[in-house]
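Input/output pair, single chain:
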Amino acid sequence: MTNYILFALIVCFRSGVFIAVAGLSFVTMATENDLKADHESKLEHILVTAQRRVQNAQDVPVSIATLNGEKLDALFSSGDDIQALTTRIPGLYIESSNGRIAPRFYIRGLGNTDFDLAASQPVSVIMDEVVMENVVLKSFPLFDTEQIEVLRGPQGSLFGRNTTAGIVKITSAKPEQDFSAYTRMAAGSLGTLDLEAAAGGGLTESLSGRISLLSQQRSDYIDNAFTEEPDFTGGHKEKAGRLQLLYEGSDFQTLLNIHSRDLDASSSVFRANVLTKGSNQLNENYQRDRVWHDSGDGNFRLYKGFGASLAFEFIVPEMSLTLISALEKADGRGKSDVDGGYRIDADFDGVPEQMGPGFIPFSAVTEDQLNNLQQVTQEIRLASDTDKAVQWQIGAFYFDSSFGVTSIDGFYGSTSVYHSNQSWALFAQTSYELTEAWTLSGGIRYTFDEKSFWVGEQNAGGAALAVGAARIQHYDPIFQDDGQ
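Output:
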């Protein structure tokens, strides 16, 4: 009897252990499934427009990184410019020799190191569906931004030229019927103050609007030890704004976007001989709040810009038609002591040669002026709008840009160069979903591109020289009104 009771207790114990383990395994499996489902549901909310249509990021056959929400707000909360993206998006690097103007973009190491205001880059910046071709347009400040997408690799079939390395695609927050507003302020040392505000909501049952404002400033904090001038450079003041109006009808919508900026800032600070040969450590010539400049006028950057775009989207049976017209304008100038030090040559009065910090072989100062930049773009796209396995889109694109650049330096005086560029393109892309895991895509684009480059006037040592022989291709009549 005793053995029977003992046997029964052992059976009950083993059964309990089995049930507990089985139950634990079931709970563990259920938890893993829940986590997986939750993870997948979160991924489904990452929507991108990398292929000119709204898609789940997991369904886009492009290497893409996105930045939005709180991470995006935190990144620019201290008043940084677009170069701050370098620290948050793998494969993307942004630098500038002009401070908050004319950034140079690199994706996977591919970019253009040329700092000229007319330089083209293999990384395209598209802001609110409008290409920002010139390097000054690429520097428009980021505020009230909904999402940033970085597309790695060539994107030529849908986005055209200068996308060999990829695209940085910026989307601003759009107007909605529901009222929303925010104000954000950040303050720091050196007189740093960053103010950002936006408000929007329904104006009528079909019309909504949104206004976004930005004000950033930092005091000059770098002294010039050569001229004994305090607070010589290093600061910036920037103001920008954006007004959007969205009309939503039963089968179409229209979005008007008007934006502008006003920048008074410094260039990147040039410092002479702060690295000792054979070392990557800063030496005694480097002082964070002090430079020795004999020219440059504070390394100023003064720029203004204005732009507007009007987008129409029509919904037709199983298709959508999109038309986008845009205008971008900018003007500005800047000056820099690029040798980073001072040099005074000996003269006939017995004044000894002076230079510093360290050896300065020659004095170098540059000044550039961007004159009357104007860019006009027009795009039209017709795309499928169904859940079928076959998706397609066709479109046409027109681009017209003109501007002048005047360069001034101590050796050759001034040179004025004028640029114009007209281009148009036809493109098409289609995709076929073979299975849930496999999609076959293909695209084609034809582009006609014509550029004019004209050297208008040179001033060498005070003597003005008309350089008609330097004209390349043909004289563009758009400059005739300027009297050149």
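The longest strand covers residues 439-460. Residues 134 and 255 are 24 Å apart (CA to CA).
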